[in-house]
Amino acid sequence: MEITLKVFRYNPEKDKRGHYEVYKVEGTENDRVLDLLEYIKGNYDGTLSFRRSCAHGVCGSDAIRINGRNMLACKTLVRDVGEKITVEPVLGLKIVKDLIVDMEPFFDNYKAVLPYFINNSPLPENGRERLQSIEARARFDETTKCILCACCTTSCPSYWANGNYYGPAAIVTAHRFIFDDRDEAASERLRILSETDGIARCHTAYNCTEACPREIKITRVIGEVKMAMVTGKLD
Amino acid sequence: MTKTHQFDVVVVGAGGAGLMAGLYASRTAKTAVISKLYPTRSHTGAAQGGIGAALGSIEEDKPEWHTYDTVKGSDYLGDQDAIEFMCSEAINAVYELEHMGLPFDRTPNGKISQRPFGGHTNNETGKPVRRAAHAADRTGHMILQTLYQQCLKNKVNFFDEFQVLDFIHVNGKTAGVVAVELSTGELHVIHAKAVIFATGGHGRIFEVTSNAYAYTGDGAAILLRHGFPLEDMEFFQFHPTGIYKLGILITEGVRGEGGILINGAGERFMPKYAPTVKDLASRDVISRAIYTEIREGRGVNGQNYVYLDVRPESVIKYAAMDGRTNLDGTPYTITGEQVLAKLPDIVDFCRVYLGVDPVTQMMPIQPTAHYTMGGIPTNKFGEVVVDDKNTPFPGLYAAGECACVSVHGGNRLGTNSLLDLVVFGKYAGLKAAEYANQTDFAPLPAEAESVSRSQFEVLKNGSGKENVFKLSTELKKVMFADVGIYRNEKDMASALEKVRELKSRFKEVKVQDTGRIFNTELLNTWELGNMLEIAEVVAASALNRKESRGGHSREDYPNRDDANWLKHTLIWSKNGKLEIGYKPVTITKYQPKARVY
C-alpha cells in the first residue's frame, strides 16, 4: 500500500522556522513508523534526522508525535495509525533539528529527584542480598518499567506551561524509589516533590497515562505519591 | 575547532560494561564516560531473561557447575581460567547489584528469584538448574538503569551523544580518543592515560537481528584500523527465538518457564536433538534444530518459521511428560496470569508486532542474529592483548560484548552476557584506574583529530554514485544468507567477495547533509564503514575455520576437529590485507569431550 507521511522539517543552520515535507512510501500495515522514516532517510533525503536505537520499544530514543499523539516510532505500526501519517517532534522541549529535541532539561528534571537507590544501613553480614518480600517488590513494579522516553512529560499541559515542573517521568522515577522498602530517602524525595515546581503542578490531565508506551498508569502513580505526601504513609 | 579534555581514564560506551567500568574507575581516577547514545538507551537495556550466578536461592547450585556448563556451552573454545574467574565472581557481582538497589524478583522467603535457562544444569543430574537471577523479563533494563543511577549518585562525568571516531596512541602507549559531539558537530580530543572500549557488538551486519541500530562494531573497527588483532570473529550467536521477520528477541526465559518449540506438523521437535534438556539446550543447538526442521519441510505453512508455545495448557502438558515438578514435588503448572506476570514485555512485543496473544496463541519465531562472541582480545582483567602470547597494550582495555576474553568461546550461554559485562566491566575499570595512577600522560600527537577529520571529508566529497542505504541492505542480506547459521566454502567465499565489492563501492558514497548539527547521515555512513570492515573480518575468519564448533556450523566440515582447530583465531588488517594467526585455548580442568545435551 502507499503510505503518505507528512514530516516536520527544521534545519537550524538554514531555516528560520520549521515546515512540513510530504513523502510517499510503499509499505505494509505491519511496517513500523520508524521503518518508514529510515526508508525516507535512505532513499529520498539523507538529511532527515531523528534518534533511534533498539527499534523495539525498550531504549526510549524515538519518542515523536504521530498524528498528534506522543508515541515511539518503533512501537507504532501502520495498522495502528493508518496510511496518512503526520510526524512531528514532541512538544515542550526545544526543537534542535527535524524530529530531534533537546533532551537535557528532561534529564535535568530526572536528576533532581535523587534517581538512585539510597540505603546507608549496614549490608547483611553474610554479604548476600537484602531480603524483600514478593509483595514489597510488587509495590513499585509498575514504575520500574520506565524507559525515560519522555512521551509522558512532553504530553503534559502543565509541563508545556512551565518547563521547571519536574514532570511525570521524574515523578515516576521518584515513585520507584519512594515505594521500595529497601530505600531510605523517601522523605527527602517527597520534600523535593513538594516544592513549587513539584507535584502540585500535576492537574490530572491524564495525557501522561495515555502517552506512556510502557503502559504505566502514571496518573495513578502520581496520585500515590500525592497521597504519601499528605498522609506521610507509604502504603 | 577542536576541543581538548584531559582525564585519567576515558570509557567509550555507556552500556552495562561501560557504566560498571566508569563506576569503578571513577573511585580512584578522574574518569569520563562518552557514549553515542544517552546511557539509558544502550543495548544492555534490551537483555531480558536474567543474569547467571550460582546463588542457590532456590535449589543447590555451585560456581563449579556454572563453570563447567559455560565451558561446555563454549564448545571448549572458552578459556577456562577466565570462565572459572567469571563464574566465581558471579555470586558477589549479583549481590552487589542488589545492594545497588536492583529490583530483582523475589522468592517467597525474600531471596533473589532464579529461573532455568538454556545450558545451565545441575551437573550431577544433568537437569536444568534455576540459575538466572531475574527482574521480570527486563533484567538488562534494570541493570542498565541501576548502574546509570549509581553513576549519577557517584558523580561520574558523562559526555552524552558523543560518537567515538578514533583511538590515539603514541610509541606503544595509550593517549586517548577522538570523538564528535553530535549536537554541534565539533571534534573533541580526550587526552587520557587509559582508554576502555565498551562499545558493544556488531549484529547490525546481519539482516534479521535482535540488535539495536547502534550495534555497528565501532570500537573493534577502530582498533582493527590501528593494527590491533580481533579474536574469534567467526563466532556469532544466532538466538533461536526472534520474532519472525523482525528479529526482535523473545527471551529464552519463555522456555525457562516451560515454553516449547513446535514445528509446522504440530510436533515438539527438540527431544530429537537434545534428549535430556530438550527445549533448554544451548542456543546454537536449538537454532540449528529449527533450521533443520525448516529445511526438511517442517516449517509452518512451508515458511521459514516455527512456533514457540507458552500457552498454559501446552506448558502443563509437556511439563507433565517431562516430569517437571515444583520444589515441593507437585506437578509444574502455570496460568495465563503467571505468564503475564513473568513475561510482561514478551506478551507486549507479541501483541504490538504480531497481533498475537501468547497466552492463547503460539508465537511465530525464527533464529535471529544476536550476539558477538568474538571481538577485541583481552585477558581476564580487561587488558587488551595484542598477540598469541597475550602481551597487553599499555593503557588499553575492553569489556562487554566488544571484548573477547574469551569466556563464551564458540557459543555463549544465555545469562552469561549480563554477567560478563558486570564482572569484566568492573575489572577493566579497576585495572585502568590502577594503571592511570602509576603512569604519566603520553604526549598528544599534533593534530590527533586529523584522521577523523579526513574520514569525514572523504564521506562528504565522494562521487555519490552509490547509495548508503542500498549498500547497507546488500551487506546485511549476504551476511545473513551466506555467513549465517549454516555455512559452507562456496557461499562464504562468494560472500567475502561480495563484501569486498561493497567495500570498494562504499568509496563512491556521498553524504548529502552538509550541516554540523546532528548530522546523523554522516554518522550512519561512518558506521557503515565500520560494519563493512567487521563483516569482511567475520567472513574471512569463518571461511578459514574448517570445522564446526559452537555457533560456527559448516556443512562441508560438520564435525568439531580438536586436533587441528582447538585454538583461537586472531585476525589483523595489514596494509589493506587480512592476516590470520592463532592463539592457544587455556584448558585447566575440563578436557574437551563430545557435547551432548
Cα radius of gyration of chain A in angstroms:
20 Å
State the helix count of chain B.
17
* CATH H-level superfamily of the largest domain in chain A: Alpha-helical ferredoxin
Range of strand content of chain B: 15-25%
Low-confidence stretches of chain A: none
- Which of globular, elongated, flat, extended, rod-shaped describes the shape of chain B? globular
Identify the biggest protein-protein contact and residues per side.
A-B, 61 and 62 residues
Coarse structural class of chain A: alpha+beta
Q: Per DSSP, what share of the residues of chain A sits in E-state strands of 2 or more residues?
A: 5-15%
What is the CATH class designation of the largest domain in chain A?
Mainly Alpha
Order of helix and strand elements from N to C terminus of chain A: EEHEEHEEEHHHHHHH
What is the C-alpha radius of gyration of chain B, as a whole number of Å? 23 Å
Which short descriptors sum up this protein?
heterodimer, A: 235 residues, alpha+beta, Ubiquitin-like (UB roll), Fumarate Reductase Iron-sulfur Protein, Chain B, domain 2, five-stranded mixed sheet, 9 helices, elongated, B: 597 residues, alpha/beta, FAD/NAD(P)-binding domain, Flavocytochrome C3, Chain A, domain 1, eight-stranded mixed sheet, four-stranded antiparallel sheet, 17 helices, 35% helix
